[in-house]
Amino acid sequence: MKESESEKRRRRWINFGELIALCALIVSALGVWINWKDKSDDKPATVVEERQPIPLTLRGKVEDDGKTMQISPVESSHALETLTITVKGAAPIAVGSDGNLDASSLDAILKGRSDSKGTQSIPVRIDSTYVEMGKDKKASGTYRLVYRWEGGGLFGGRSLRLVGLSRG
Question: pLDDT for 57-74, tens place per residue?
């Protein structure tokens, strides 16, 4: 059986194709080995996350039987610089960086608003400047200031007592 010239040529192309496939397999195996070797030498990477700013939220702590309220940030990384409380229809009350609000500051504002006894609340706007991560920032929000009137008998006057502060 004698092979024709066209069959020989076809067989050479098949051998040439097999040789190219074998070279591709070797190159691919070499790439996998290099990648595996590089990964095994790597040490665990340490990821340092940048701290995200946290919005200012305030809380009120009643002191001295409701005669004062200490208003402070919930987040310990916030430092108050100024704090101003505004009741609608009244002049703003500058509390300052210490956050101490006296009931007497609100007494004159709230006296004419309600004669009812018991616990009541009023919406207030609190504007503040504070420091977070070394930067000065401003924040404002609406809160509910909870208070109650005490006294008011025949011979005594009424006195305002602060009860709490909540996000409103």
Answer: 899 999 988 889 999 999
Helices (H), the chain: 5-41, 103-110
d(CA 153, CA 18): 108
Residue among 68, 92, 60, 71 at smallest CA distance from 166: 60
Q: How far is CA 32 from CA 23, 24, 29, 42, 136, in A?
A: 14, 12, 5, 16, 53
How many CB atoms are located within 10 Å of the residue 114 CB?
A: 12
pLDDT band at residue 30 under the 50/70/90 scheme: very high
Answer yes or no: pTM beyond 0.70. Answer: no
Which tens digit of pLDDT belongs to each residue from 62-116?
A: 998 888 999 999 988 888 899 999 988 888 989 888 889 888 888 878 776 666 6
Q: What is the DSSP string of 27-58?
A: HHHHHHHHHHHHHHHPPPPPP-PPPPP----E
Report how far residue 62's alpha carbon sits from residue 137's, in angstroms, rounded to the nearest whole number: 26
Are the C-beta atoms of 138 and 43 separated by less than 8 Å? no
Contacts of 44 (CB under 8 A, 6+ apart): none
In 3D, which of 148, 82, 155, 161 has the Cα closest to residue 115? 148
